Amino acid sequence: MSSFQDVVRLEALLQQDGIRTLLLSQVAADKNEQQQLVDYHAAVDMITYAPTRLANDLQLATPKWLSTAYFPEVSKQTLKAIKEQKDKEKTDHMYLLCGLLLSKICRLGHTTVALHIMFPYMLNLDSDIKLLLAHMDDVALERFIELFLSQLVLHFRDSSVPTAECLPILYFYLDDVIAQRKGICRLFTHKLLFEKVHSGAFAELVLRFIKHLNDRDDGLLASTAVSICEVWSDQNFLLNASSRQSIYIWHILSALLQLISTDDVHSWKLLQPLLAGVQLRLEKPDAEAKRQAMAMAERISTVLTPNEPLKFEELEDGALGGIGDNEETVNGPAFDATYFAPPQHVDILDVDPDDPIEN
Q1: Whether the Cβ atoms of residue 74 and residue 101 lie closer than 8 Å to each other
Q2: End-to-end Cα distance, the chain
């Protein structure tokens, strides 16, 4: 196929609802399941690699305008195809195909643009997107969930009760997925706590969701609490962790202490590692470590002796400053503040989930 024909095909996909039409026609075709799955994968590859193939044909790098305009349009037309699927017998096939497509988009590094097309609809508890997520593969779904949580935290950051606003949305989208795929649970109990660095509000949301999951998986919160306290009291962690990592584990532990009781502390054997972590930081010469130690000691005391909470004058008079005064992880995203912002070509304010999806 000539480069000119490739350009025409790509323009048709973008400007003439070509992606939506392709998805609907794939689902409408009567084929055996094995052939249908082969055709679905071929369609997904054709859609997701179209810009790269065009650039290769032209022997150029993928044009910036194309890379920034293409995948938001793909995401938009994917939603459109799902909502226009009328044949109930084909509904599961549509979710399967679109789940494969969204997974590929995420694996190719375009999770953010896909999320920003879907996010306004997700705030309204969109059942189509819920079923779409259930058909994504685990790797892509984990990427999507992490960005979704971050975006929820940012969206509700000015709310008086941000976590209370976020949790029902998480329950709606993730309860069934986690019930069917236990591996996704590890995203919350391990990866988002110990492999990444996020904000304090993000840590609180993750811990409260783990507590929710604990209602049907008894012991989940306890095992997570033990792991958190082990990291908190680990001298190697304290010596080798970056300032942001150290502050993040402080926020994680603070969020945990809001969710547990004195009985939990004792029955889960948390007291010794809690106090050991405090002592390690008190012995360090830098003011940040001492701030963390004293502030955590105060929080521990509110759990153990709520009627006689511990107070440090150094924290009261501000002599040691606040936790992470110079760190952006305290109230905002751990990464560049623009990381979760919509790409410039996408005006997310123009997306109205109450209106039909239109070009």
Answers
A1: yes
A2: 28
Of the chain, the percentage scoring pLDDT greater than 90 comes to 62
Q: How many CB atoms lie within 10 A of CB 171?
A: 14
Q: Which residue has the tokens 């009328």?
A: 86
Give start and end residues of each alpha helix (H) in the chain. 3-15, 18-28, 33-57, 64-84, 91-107, 111-122, 127-134, 138-155, 162-180, 185-186, 200-214, 220-232, 235-240, 243-257, 262-267, 271-282, 287-304, 313-316
- pLDDT at position 1: 44
Q: Match 């459109």 to its residue by tokens.
A: 80
C-alpha torsion sign, points 343, 332, 329, 106 = negative
| Angstrom distance (rounded) from CA 82 to CA 172 | 19
Q: How far apart are CA 199 and CA 250, in angstroms?
A: 11
**Which ranges of 187-242 does DSSP label H, i.e. alpha helix?**
200-214, 220-232, 235-240
pLDDT digits (tens, 9 = 90+) for 51-104: 777 666 666 665 565 667 789 989 999 999 999 987 878 899 999 999 999 999
CA distances from 357 to 99, 102, 134, 165, 346 (A): 18, 17, 22, 25, 15
pTM: 0.84
Chain segment 99-146, per-residue pLDDT in tens? 999 999 999 999 999 999 999 999 999 999 999 999 999 999 999 999
Whole-number Å distance between alpha carbons of 326 and 164: 28
Angle subtended by helix axes 3-15 and 64-84, to nearest 10 = 50
